[in-house]
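Hey, resending since the last one bounced:
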Amino acid sequence: METEKKTKKELSRRDFIKGAATGIGVGALASMGAVSYSPMRKKYLPQVKRKQHDFGVCRSVKVTNISETSWFSNSELMGDMRDVGGLLVNQYDYNWPPFGNGAGLGKGSYKKGIEKIKHLLPNQLDEAWKIAEKNAVNPQNAGGFAALVEMEDMDGTIHKYLLDSGWSYKWMDDAFKREGIDKMLQEREIEKLFISHAHFDHFWGLPVTYKYDPTIPTYIPQGFYPEDKQYIKDSGHQGEVVEVKNGLKEIAPGFAVYAFGVPIICRVFGELSMYFNVKDLGLVSVTGCCHQGIIKFADTAYRELKYEKDQMHGIYGGLHISPFEDWDPKYDDLVISLENWGFEKIGCNHCTGILTAKKFINRGYNVIEGTAQHGSKDKAYLGNGDVIEFRA
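The C-alpha coordinates again:
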Protein backbone atom coordinates (compact mmCIF):
# COMPACT_ATOMS: atom_id res chain seq x y z
CA MET A 1 0.00 0.00 0.00
CA GLU A 2 2.80 2.37 0.87
CA THR A 3 4.48 1.70 -2.47
CA GLU A 4 1.20 2.34 -4.27
CA LYS A 5 0.77 5.67 -2.54
CA LYS A 6 4.32 6.67 -3.39
CA THR A 7 3.84 6.07 -7.11
CA LYS A 8 0.95 8.51 -7.12
CA LYS A 9 3.03 11.35 -5.76
CA GLU A 10 5.17 13.75 -7.75
CA LEU A 11 8.68 12.41 -8.26
CA SER A 12 10.88 13.61 -5.42
CA ARG A 13 14.53 14.57 -5.79
CA ARG A 14 15.67 11.38 -4.03
CA ASP A 15 13.48 9.25 -6.31
CA PHE A 16 14.85 11.08 -9.35
CA ILE A 17 18.47 10.49 -8.42
CA LYS A 18 17.79 6.87 -7.55
CA GLY A 19 15.94 6.40 -10.81
CA ALA A 20 18.78 7.91 -12.80
CA ALA A 21 21.16 5.36 -11.30
CA THR A 22 18.93 2.35 -11.96
CA GLY A 23 17.43 3.29 -15.30
CA ILE A 24 14.00 4.02 -13.83
CA GLY A 25 14.70 7.73 -14.29
CA VAL A 26 14.55 7.36 -18.06
CA GLY A 27 11.04 5.93 -17.82
CA ALA A 28 10.02 8.65 -15.41
CA LEU A 29 11.21 11.36 -17.79
CA ALA A 30 9.40 9.68 -20.67
CA SER A 31 6.21 9.60 -18.60
CA MET A 32 6.55 13.28 -17.77
CA GLY A 33 6.86 14.03 -21.48
CA ALA A 34 3.73 12.05 -22.30
CA VAL A 35 1.73 13.82 -19.60
CA SER A 36 3.01 17.26 -20.58
CA TYR A 37 2.54 16.82 -24.32
CA SER A 38 -0.80 15.01 -24.51
CA PRO A 39 -3.86 17.23 -24.98
CA MET A 40 -5.94 14.36 -23.61
CA ARG A 41 -4.39 14.56 -20.15
CA LYS A 42 -7.21 16.70 -18.73
CA LYS A 43 -9.69 13.87 -19.16
CA TYR A 44 -7.81 11.88 -16.52
CA LEU A 45 -7.32 14.67 -14.01
CA PRO A 46 -9.91 15.71 -11.42
CA GLN A 47 -11.49 19.12 -11.85
CA VAL A 48 -9.81 21.63 -9.57
CA LYS A 49 -11.23 24.75 -8.03
CA ARG A 50 -9.52 27.85 -9.40
CA LYS A 51 -7.82 29.90 -6.73
CA GLN A 52 -8.04 33.14 -8.74
CA HIS A 53 -5.18 34.76 -6.80
CA ASP A 54 -5.23 38.51 -7.43
CA PHE A 55 -1.65 39.75 -7.89
CA GLY A 56 -2.45 43.16 -9.36
CA VAL A 57 -1.93 44.56 -12.84
CA CYS A 58 0.80 46.27 -14.84
CA ARG A 59 0.60 48.38 -17.97
CA SER A 60 3.00 46.55 -20.29
CA VAL A 61 5.77 43.98 -20.61
CA LYS A 62 8.71 44.11 -23.03
CA VAL A 63 11.23 41.30 -23.52
CA THR A 64 14.58 41.80 -25.26
CA ASN A 65 16.33 38.63 -26.31
CA ILE A 66 19.92 39.28 -25.24
CA SER A 67 21.05 35.83 -26.37
CA GLU A 68 19.05 32.75 -27.28
CA THR A 69 21.97 30.85 -28.81
CA SER A 70 22.53 28.42 -25.97
CA TRP A 71 24.97 26.38 -28.07
CA PHE A 72 26.05 26.36 -31.69
CA SER A 73 26.02 22.68 -32.64
CA ASN A 74 23.33 20.21 -31.65
CA SER A 75 25.46 17.32 -32.85
CA GLU A 76 28.41 18.27 -30.64
CA LEU A 77 26.23 18.77 -27.58
CA MET A 78 24.28 15.54 -28.04
CA GLY A 79 27.46 13.68 -28.91
CA ASP A 80 29.02 14.73 -25.61
CA MET A 81 25.89 13.70 -23.72
CA ARG A 82 25.77 10.33 -25.46
CA ASP A 83 29.45 9.58 -24.94
CA VAL A 84 29.40 10.50 -21.26
CA GLY A 85 26.48 8.20 -20.48
CA GLY A 86 23.21 9.93 -21.29
CA LEU A 87 20.88 12.71 -20.27
CA LEU A 88 20.80 11.95 -16.54
CA VAL A 89 24.53 12.40 -15.92
CA ASN A 90 25.48 15.28 -13.60
CA GLN A 91 26.23 18.30 -15.81
CA TYR A 92 29.36 19.09 -13.79
CA ASP A 93 30.79 15.71 -14.81
CA TYR A 94 30.82 16.54 -18.52
CA ASN A 95 33.96 18.68 -18.23
CA TRP A 96 32.41 21.51 -20.21
CA PRO A 97 33.59 25.09 -19.67
CA PRO A 98 34.00 26.93 -17.39
CA PHE A 99 34.71 23.93 -15.15
CA GLY A 100 37.22 22.13 -17.36
CA ASN A 101 39.99 20.37 -15.43
CA GLY A 102 41.92 18.87 -18.35
CA ALA A 103 40.91 15.27 -17.58
CA GLY A 104 38.61 14.82 -20.59
CA LEU A 105 34.96 14.05 -21.27
CA GLY A 106 33.04 12.60 -18.36
CA LYS A 107 35.84 13.22 -15.87
CA GLY A 108 34.90 16.70 -14.74
CA SER A 109 33.86 18.02 -11.33
CA TYR A 110 32.76 21.33 -9.94
CA LYS A 111 35.50 21.37 -7.29
CA LYS A 112 38.42 20.67 -9.63
CA GLY A 113 37.11 22.97 -12.32
CA ILE A 114 36.30 26.01 -10.19
CA GLU A 115 39.65 25.95 -8.38
CA LYS A 116 41.38 26.83 -11.67
CA ILE A 117 39.39 30.04 -12.20
CA LYS A 118 37.83 31.10 -8.89
CA HIS A 119 40.54 33.67 -8.16
CA LEU A 120 39.70 35.45 -11.43
CA LEU A 121 35.94 35.80 -10.88
CA PRO A 122 34.08 37.99 -11.60
CA ASN A 123 36.37 40.70 -12.94
CA GLN A 124 39.00 38.90 -15.02
CA LEU A 125 36.68 36.94 -17.23
CA ASP A 126 38.83 36.96 -20.36
CA GLU A 127 41.65 35.24 -18.51
CA ALA A 128 39.27 32.84 -16.77
CA TRP A 129 37.70 31.81 -20.07
CA LYS A 130 41.10 31.19 -21.69
CA ILE A 131 41.90 28.77 -18.87
CA ALA A 132 38.51 27.12 -19.33
CA GLU A 133 39.04 26.79 -23.09
CA LYS A 134 42.37 25.09 -22.50
CA ASN A 135 41.00 22.53 -20.04
CA ALA A 136 37.39 21.94 -21.14
CA VAL A 137 35.63 19.79 -23.73
CA ASN A 138 34.22 21.62 -26.79
CA PRO A 139 34.47 25.15 -25.37
CA GLN A 140 33.69 26.61 -28.80
CA ASN A 141 30.14 25.22 -28.53
CA ALA A 142 29.17 27.31 -25.51
CA GLY A 143 26.78 30.22 -26.02
CA GLY A 144 23.99 30.99 -23.58
CA PHE A 145 20.48 32.28 -22.92
CA ALA A 146 19.55 35.56 -21.23
CA ALA A 147 16.71 38.05 -21.65
CA LEU A 148 15.92 41.54 -20.39
CA VAL A 149 12.35 41.81 -19.09
CA GLU A 150 10.94 45.32 -18.66
CA MET A 151 7.65 45.80 -16.84
CA GLU A 152 5.78 49.12 -16.78
CA ASP A 153 3.78 49.93 -13.65
CA MET A 154 0.37 51.54 -13.92
CA ASP A 155 1.99 54.85 -12.95
CA GLY A 156 4.49 54.60 -15.84
CA THR A 157 7.51 53.46 -13.80
CA ILE A 158 9.71 50.97 -15.69
CA HIS A 159 11.20 48.03 -13.79
CA LYS A 160 14.00 46.04 -15.41
CA TYR A 161 14.76 42.41 -14.62
CA LEU A 162 17.35 40.02 -15.99
CA LEU A 163 16.26 36.46 -16.77
CA ASP A 164 19.30 34.14 -16.73
CA SER A 165 22.97 34.82 -17.44
CA GLY A 166 23.98 32.45 -20.22
CA TRP A 167 26.98 30.12 -20.44
CA SER A 168 30.16 31.30 -22.19
CA TYR A 169 31.81 34.23 -20.44
CA LYS A 170 33.06 35.58 -23.76
CA TRP A 171 29.85 35.15 -25.73
CA MET A 172 27.66 36.56 -22.98
CA ASP A 173 29.93 39.51 -22.22
CA ASP A 174 29.80 40.46 -25.91
CA ALA A 175 26.00 40.05 -25.93
CA PHE A 176 25.63 42.18 -22.77
CA LYS A 177 27.68 44.95 -24.36
CA ARG A 178 25.76 44.72 -27.65
CA GLU A 179 22.42 45.25 -25.88
CA GLY A 180 23.70 47.74 -23.27
CA ILE A 181 23.10 45.33 -20.39
CA ASP A 182 26.60 46.00 -19.01
CA LYS A 183 25.80 49.69 -18.46
CA MET A 184 22.32 48.96 -17.08
CA LEU A 185 23.87 46.66 -14.49
CA GLN A 186 26.65 49.09 -13.63
CA GLU A 187 24.12 51.88 -13.09
CA ARG A 188 21.88 49.57 -11.01
CA GLU A 189 19.00 49.98 -13.46
CA ILE A 190 18.30 46.24 -13.41
CA GLU A 191 16.61 45.48 -10.11
CA LYS A 192 16.80 41.69 -9.90
CA LEU A 193 18.33 38.65 -11.56
CA PHE A 194 16.07 35.61 -11.94
CA ILE A 195 17.73 32.28 -12.69
CA SER A 196 15.13 30.09 -14.37
CA HIS A 197 17.07 26.89 -13.64
CA ALA A 198 20.63 25.69 -13.13
CA HIS A 199 21.34 24.32 -16.61
CA PHE A 200 24.77 25.19 -18.04
CA ASP A 201 23.40 27.44 -20.81
CA HIS A 202 21.29 29.55 -18.43
CA PHE A 203 23.41 29.59 -15.28
CA TRP A 204 27.12 29.04 -15.86
CA GLY A 205 27.64 32.54 -17.30
CA LEU A 206 26.74 34.00 -13.91
CA PRO A 207 30.04 35.88 -13.37
CA VAL A 208 29.26 38.03 -16.41
CA THR A 209 26.31 39.55 -14.54
CA TYR A 210 28.26 39.92 -11.30
CA LYS A 211 31.16 41.57 -13.12
CA TYR A 212 28.89 44.57 -13.66
CA ASP A 213 26.72 44.34 -10.53
CA PRO A 214 27.97 41.97 -7.83
CA THR A 215 25.21 43.08 -5.44
CA ILE A 216 22.16 42.39 -7.62
CA PRO A 217 19.50 40.37 -5.73
CA THR A 218 19.42 36.89 -7.25
CA TYR A 219 16.32 34.68 -7.28
CA ILE A 220 16.58 30.92 -7.75
CA PRO A 221 14.00 28.11 -7.68
CA GLN A 222 13.89 25.62 -4.85
CA GLY A 223 15.99 22.60 -5.75
CA PHE A 224 19.45 24.02 -6.42
CA TYR A 225 22.18 21.57 -5.45
CA PRO A 226 25.05 22.55 -3.09
CA GLU A 227 27.48 23.19 -5.95
CA ASP A 228 24.90 25.38 -7.71
CA LYS A 229 24.60 27.56 -4.63
CA GLN A 230 28.36 27.54 -4.14
CA TYR A 231 28.86 28.77 -7.69
CA ILE A 232 26.81 31.86 -6.88
CA LYS A 233 29.28 32.65 -4.10
CA ASP A 234 32.35 31.69 -6.12
CA SER A 235 31.16 33.93 -8.97
CA GLY A 236 31.64 36.97 -6.74
CA HIS A 237 28.08 37.64 -5.64
CA GLN A 238 27.79 40.02 -2.67
CA GLY A 239 24.03 40.49 -2.58
CA GLU A 240 20.91 38.70 -1.41
CA VAL A 241 19.99 35.25 -2.71
CA VAL A 242 16.27 34.48 -2.59
CA GLU A 243 15.28 30.83 -2.93
CA VAL A 244 11.69 30.71 -4.18
CA LYS A 245 9.89 27.80 -2.58
CA ASN A 246 7.80 25.62 -4.88
CA GLY A 247 4.70 27.57 -5.75
CA LEU A 248 3.77 31.21 -6.30
CA LYS A 249 5.66 34.30 -5.14
CA GLU A 250 4.56 37.87 -5.86
CA ILE A 251 7.35 40.22 -6.88
CA ALA A 252 5.50 43.46 -7.73
CA PRO A 253 1.92 44.49 -8.65
CA GLY A 254 1.14 42.56 -11.81
CA PHE A 255 4.25 40.35 -11.59
CA ALA A 256 4.66 36.97 -9.91
CA VAL A 257 7.03 34.04 -10.32
CA TYR A 258 6.23 30.37 -9.90
CA ALA A 259 8.74 27.70 -8.89
CA PHE A 260 8.00 24.32 -10.43
CA GLY A 261 9.49 21.36 -8.56
CA VAL A 262 10.44 19.25 -11.56
CA PRO A 263 13.47 17.02 -12.25
CA ILE A 264 15.32 18.02 -15.42
CA ILE A 265 17.99 16.36 -17.56
CA CYS A 266 21.68 16.68 -16.57
CA ARG A 267 20.76 16.35 -12.87
CA VAL A 268 19.09 19.71 -12.50
CA PHE A 269 16.02 20.26 -10.31
CA GLY A 270 13.43 23.02 -10.39
CA GLU A 271 12.42 25.76 -12.82
CA LEU A 272 11.31 29.34 -12.14
CA SER A 273 8.94 31.06 -14.59
CA MET A 274 7.29 34.49 -14.75
CA TYR A 275 3.66 35.60 -14.98
CA PHE A 276 2.48 39.16 -15.72
CA ASN A 277 -1.07 40.49 -15.63
CA VAL A 278 -1.25 43.22 -18.29
CA LYS A 279 -4.10 45.73 -18.01
CA ASP A 280 -6.84 45.24 -20.63
CA LEU A 281 -4.93 42.37 -22.27
CA GLY A 282 -4.62 39.40 -19.94
CA LEU A 283 -1.87 37.09 -18.77
CA VAL A 284 1.64 37.18 -20.25
CA SER A 285 3.84 34.18 -19.41
CA VAL A 286 7.64 34.30 -19.70
CA THR A 287 9.85 31.26 -19.33
CA GLY A 288 13.50 30.31 -19.70
CA CYS A 289 13.07 26.74 -20.98
CA CYS A 290 9.68 25.48 -19.75
CA HIS A 291 10.97 22.06 -18.72
CA GLN A 292 7.77 21.71 -16.71
CA GLY A 293 5.92 21.45 -20.03
CA ILE A 294 3.92 24.14 -21.73
CA ILE A 295 0.60 22.50 -20.76
CA LYS A 296 1.56 22.42 -17.09
CA PHE A 297 2.78 26.01 -17.42
CA ALA A 298 -0.61 27.12 -18.74
CA ASP A 299 -2.56 24.85 -16.40
CA THR A 300 -0.81 26.35 -13.38
CA ALA A 301 -1.70 29.89 -14.43
CA TYR A 302 -5.32 28.90 -15.03
CA ARG A 303 -5.54 27.18 -11.65
CA GLU A 304 -3.67 29.74 -9.54
CA LEU A 305 -4.11 33.24 -10.94
CA LYS A 306 -6.68 35.91 -11.62
CA TYR A 307 -5.91 37.91 -14.75
CA GLU A 308 -7.52 40.48 -17.04
CA LYS A 309 -10.43 39.30 -19.21
CA ASP A 310 -9.61 35.74 -18.08
CA GLN A 311 -7.49 35.75 -21.24
CA MET A 312 -4.08 34.12 -21.72
CA HIS A 313 -2.78 36.84 -23.96
CA GLY A 314 0.87 36.08 -24.60
CA ILE A 315 3.76 33.72 -24.03
CA TYR A 316 7.47 34.13 -24.61
CA GLY A 317 10.49 31.90 -24.09
CA GLY A 318 12.07 28.57 -24.75
CA LEU A 319 9.02 26.33 -24.93
CA HIS A 320 11.22 23.22 -25.02
CA ILE A 321 9.34 21.09 -27.53
CA SER A 322 12.04 20.15 -30.06
CA PRO A 323 15.20 22.00 -28.94
CA PHE A 324 17.42 19.43 -30.68
CA GLU A 325 15.27 19.55 -33.85
CA ASP A 326 14.07 15.99 -33.36
CA TRP A 327 10.38 15.24 -33.82
CA ASP A 328 7.86 12.86 -32.37
CA PRO A 329 4.15 12.57 -33.29
CA LYS A 330 3.17 13.54 -29.74
CA TYR A 331 4.70 16.96 -30.38
CA ASP A 332 2.06 17.49 -33.07
CA ASP A 333 -0.58 16.87 -30.41
CA LEU A 334 0.97 19.64 -28.35
CA VAL A 335 1.10 22.07 -31.27
CA ILE A 336 -2.59 21.44 -31.91
CA SER A 337 -3.61 21.57 -28.24
CA LEU A 338 -1.91 24.94 -27.76
CA GLU A 339 -4.85 26.44 -29.62
CA ASN A 340 -7.11 25.55 -26.71
CA TRP A 341 -5.41 28.13 -24.49
CA GLY A 342 -6.15 30.98 -26.88
CA PHE A 343 -2.78 32.73 -26.80
CA GLU A 344 -3.06 35.89 -28.87
CA LYS A 345 0.68 36.49 -29.21
CA ILE A 346 3.52 33.96 -29.16
CA GLY A 347 7.26 34.58 -29.02
CA CYS A 348 9.69 31.71 -28.93
CA ASN A 349 13.39 31.01 -29.43
CA HIS A 350 15.59 28.16 -30.60
CA CYS A 351 14.93 26.15 -27.41
CA THR A 352 11.38 25.79 -28.71
CA GLY A 353 12.80 24.26 -31.88
CA ILE A 354 12.77 25.72 -35.38
CA LEU A 355 10.49 22.88 -36.48
CA THR A 356 8.04 23.73 -33.71
CA ALA A 357 8.07 27.46 -34.45
CA LYS A 358 7.32 26.77 -38.11
CA LYS A 359 4.49 24.41 -37.18
CA PHE A 360 3.02 27.15 -34.97
CA ILE A 361 3.18 29.53 -37.92
CA ASN A 362 1.66 26.99 -40.32
CA ARG A 363 -1.30 26.51 -37.96
CA GLY A 364 -1.97 30.24 -38.11
CA TYR A 365 -0.86 31.17 -34.59
CA ASN A 366 0.27 34.78 -34.15
CA VAL A 367 3.98 34.01 -33.84
CA ILE A 368 6.18 37.09 -33.70
CA GLU A 369 9.03 36.31 -36.04
CA GLY A 370 12.63 37.45 -35.66
CA THR A 371 15.43 38.84 -37.79
CA ALA A 372 17.95 35.97 -37.66
CA GLN A 373 20.68 38.43 -36.67
CA HIS A 374 23.77 38.18 -34.44
CA GLY A 375 24.12 34.45 -35.04
CA SER A 376 20.50 33.33 -34.69
CA LYS A 377 19.62 30.73 -37.30
CA ASP A 378 16.06 31.36 -38.44
CA LYS A 379 13.42 34.10 -38.64
CA ALA A 380 10.72 31.71 -37.42
CA TYR A 381 11.61 32.59 -33.83
CA LEU A 382 12.87 35.63 -31.92
CA GLY A 383 16.64 35.69 -32.16
CA ASN A 384 19.51 37.59 -30.61
CA GLY A 385 18.63 41.24 -30.16
CA ASP A 386 14.97 40.80 -31.12
CA VAL A 387 12.16 42.29 -29.04
CA ILE A 388 8.57 41.35 -28.21
CA GLU A 389 6.19 43.72 -26.43
CA PHE A 390 2.83 43.18 -24.78
CA ARG A 391 0.82 46.40 -24.43
CA ALA A 392 -2.83 47.34 -24.87
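Residues 312 and 341 are 7 Å apart (CA to CA).

Sorry for the duplicate.
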